[in-house]
Amino acid sequence: MHEIVVNLHMHTRYSDGTGTHRDIARAALQAGLDAVIVTDHNVWVQGLEGYYRQGSQRVLLLVGEEVHDQRREPQKNHVLVFGAGRDMASFADDPQSLLDAVRGAGGLAFLAHIHDPEQPAVHEPDISWVDWSVQGFTGVELWNGMSEFKGLLKTRLHALFYAYFPELIARGPYPQAIQKWDELLLDGKRPVAIGGSDAHALHASLGPLRRTLFPYEFHFAAINTHLLLPAPLSGDLTADRRLILEAFSAGHAFIGYDLPASTRGFRFSAQGKGIRAVMGDEIQAAGALTLQAHLPALAHECRLIKDGRPIRVWKRAQACTHIASAPGVYRFEAYRRAWGRLRAWIFSNPIYIR
Fold first, then answer.
1. Are residues 212 and 178 in the same domain?
2. CATH, residue 73
3. What is the Cα–Cα distance from 113 to 122, expressed in whole angstroms?
4. What average pLDDT score do residues 159-180 get?
């Protein structure tokens, strides 16, 4: 399969970001991304999708939307909409109606920053997802870069510190988000996990000090969603958009924190007699299967998770193998030491063995 790197969940001047779509494309080219998905708040911007080029490089820019009920206080239940082809903000007041409308339009819906606690020190409210009665969503945003940053801001000085040392921020998805994802998986649902940057490129100041929190270029080198496609991107907008949306829908994806080391080349698969599966696949197996994880570089710790619980741990490994003799939901996590601590590096989507 063909791997591409996608950064998603970002904002422009059409909502609360500071850059343009062309600024984002330029930053994505600089970061070596294959695609970006812009999701401005409650506005679907037409006419800007397509390939942007610089020399021999190209990046595909797709336009989605982040929809939420702006009249609700406090804010909750944000939905990332991809591929609907129309504005969905008119459905924002009822999450289930919104999800139904997105599905009816042929789009995908991901519940955004499912755990995003308040931070009183900087006057930021809790904007977590709370309506867990909904049905029909494609997946969840397991790891959100700006939510994690917000959680570290005990004072305004912390914001200034991390603005100058942003590589010290990312440690991994909130444990509460991981726990919720595993609960959904155990409940028989198949929510696809994605990682989002939530990039705004906000301008901040403290006295005479001025800084951008954080440039798009930084976000694009950090938390990305890697997709596995059946064919390489061709350069045709319509065909390539379809390939990307189908890969998201199928869960043929993993979250990679590419700042400490590139995660390109990671694979998690299952093999048996006449059977081969990749992340997102559901397979029927009467006998044992071999689960394999291949990493692009050495990980300081790897964990195989079955039904929400770790069943194997490897230290300082680059290839991990396990014989699965029981049905279950299997997923893989890898951690890498960087900037003085162990940090989440890779989160795979599950392989479902029935």
1. yes
2. 3.20.20.140
3. 18
4. 94
Q: pTM (2 decimals)?
A: 0.96
Of 257, 279, 309, the residue at which a domain comes to its end is 257
Nearest to 215 by CA among 16, 18, 50: 18
- Residue 73 pLDDT class (50, 70, 90 cuts): confident
Residues in CB range of 225: below 8 A, 6 or more apart: 5, 6, 7, 8, 194, 195, 196, 253, 254, 255, 256
State the DSSP string of 144-189. Answer: EHHHHHHHT-SSHHHHHHHHH-GGGT---S-HHHHHHHHHHHHTT-
CA distances from 177 to 30, 126, 140, 143 (A): 31, 14, 9, 8
Which helix (H) or strand (E) element contains residue 250? helix 237-250
Largest Cα separation within the chain, whole Å, is 67
Residue 195: half-sphere exposure toward Cβ, Cα within 13 Å: 31
Q: Rounded CA gap, 112 and 76, in Å?
A: 10
Q: What is the CATH number of the domain that holds 325?
A: 2.60.40.10
Contact call for residues 139 and 194 (beta carbons, < 8 A): yes
Q: Is residue 279 included in any domain, yes or no? A: yes
Does the residue 82 lie in any domain?
yes
Judgement on whether residues 228 and 271 belong to the same structural domain of the protein: no
Domain boundary among 201, 225, 257: 257
Structure tokens at 317: 């490994």
| Structural domain range at position 280 | 267-353
The Cα 330–Cα 318 span in angstroms is: 18
pLDDT for 205 beyond 70: no
User: Do 223 and 189 share a structural domain?
Assistant: yes
Residue 262 counted as domain residue: no
Beta bridge partners of 41: 66
